[in-house]
Each structure stands twice: as structure tokens, then as C-alpha cells.
């Protein structure tokens, strides 16, 4: 019987060493640091493709599903954070403990306005992720112009 893809140590390094629960999933670890890197990279590639096509979006909509989040361990949530210019800070157990507003000097594009739609099962299984996303929106919306790029950088969240 083949090992399900989500339990492969290459997809989930925490499955090793042998003897750990290959199917264990902690919803408090969404997004994982690896998912952050992937999500940020995907968003950057998407943004560059939009600019090359002559478009400059201001708003994004994400549809968050519990099953998909469990499979990709928070790649979409990472894209939500990256779109707004907010980076999660993880504790030593891999759980988000805070958020950091990415300084305007590090941003290569505007802070995009994000709308998230969630399924009922997502709402029930990931209430903490929704709370972190809400906190990120509040952080960016309340940031003064110096924090978001006082030299004219755009903040579409505000």
C-alpha cells in the first residue's frame, strides 16, 4: 500500500524520525515556514506576470478551504499575508506567535487589498488562521505612511 502523498517525509519533514504519526496535523501551524516561502514565491511570480501583461491589480480574493489547507499546510494563507506585506513570526514549535509588517523598503510592489471567503469547515477548523488574517489587515490598515512607504508607495488595504 503506497504512503499517501501528504505523509511523505519530503512533503512533511516533521514526519521523521520513523515512529511519529505520519498523519498528525496541527492546525495551529498554518502556515508553516515552508508554506510561507512557497506562498511568497508564488505571489511574487503572479505579480511579475501581471506587471508584464500591463496590469497592476489592487485587490485579490482568496477562497480558503479546510481540506486544501491541510494538504498544502497554508500556502494560500501565506499568499494572503504576502499580498498585504505582512510576515508571520513563528515560535520554536512552529506556531505563529506574532506578525511583522514588512518595511516598505523591502516591498517590491504595493500592499494589496485582500478579501477571503471561507467554507464552513474552514471556519470551524482554522479560527486562529482567520484571527491572524484579521490582525494582519488591521496592522496594514492602521500603519502610518512611513511604515508603508511614505514616498508614494501604495497601500490598497488602507
Task: Indicate the topology.
Layout: H1 33-52, E1 59-64, H2 66-72, H3 75-84, E2 86-90, E3 96-101, E4 113-118, H4 120-125, H5 127-142, H6 145-148
Parallel strand pairs: 1-4
Antiparallel strand pairs: 2-3
Commentary on this structure:
Helix content is 40%, strand content 15%. It is globular and about 45 Å long. With 158 residues, the protein is α+β, with helices and mostly antiparallel strands. The chain is built from 6 helices and 4 strands, in the order αβααβββααα. The strands form 2 sheets. It has a two-stranded parallel ribbon. Strands 2-3 form a two-stranded antiparallel ribbon.
Number of strands: 4
Shape: globular
Helix content: 25-40%
Mean pLDDT: 85
Biggest β-sheet: count, sense, barrel? 2 strands, parallel
The fraction of residues in strands falls at 5-15%
Counting DSSP H or I runs of 4 or more residues, the number of helices is 6
Radius of gyration: 17 Å
| SSE class | alpha+beta
Task: State the end-to-end CA separation.
Answer: 52 Å
The SSE string, one letter per element, is HEHHEEEHHH
Strand order of the largest sheet: 1-4
Low-confidence stretches: 1-5
Oligomer: single chain
Amino acid at each position: 500500500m503506497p504512503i499517501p502523498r501528504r505523509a511523505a517525509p519530503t512533503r512533511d519533514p516533521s514526519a521523521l524520525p520513523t515512529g511519529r504519526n505520519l498523519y498528525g496535523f496541527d492546525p495551529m501551524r498554518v502556515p508553516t515556514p515552508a508554506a510561507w516561502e512557497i506562498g511568497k514565491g508564488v505571489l511574487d511570480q503572479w505579480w511579475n506576470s501581471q506587471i508584464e501583461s500591463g496590469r497592476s491589480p489592487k485587490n485579490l480574493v482568496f477562497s480558503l478551504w479546510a481540506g486544501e489547507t491541510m494538504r498544502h499546510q497554508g500556502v494560500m494563507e501565506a499568499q494572503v499575508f504576502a499580498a498585504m506585506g505582512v510576515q508571520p513570526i513563528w515560535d520554536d514549535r512552529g506556531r505563529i506567535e506574532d506578525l511583522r509588517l514588512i518595511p516598505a523598503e523591502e516591498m517590491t510592489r504595493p500592499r494589496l487589498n485582500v478579501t477571503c471567503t471561507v467554507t464552513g469547515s474552514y471556519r470551524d477548523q482554522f479560527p486562529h488562521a482567520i484571527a491572524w488574517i484579521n490582525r494582519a489587515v488591521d496592522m496594514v490598515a492602521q500603519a502610518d505612511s512611513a511604515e508603508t512607504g511614505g514616498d508614494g508607495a501604495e497601500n490598497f488595504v488602507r
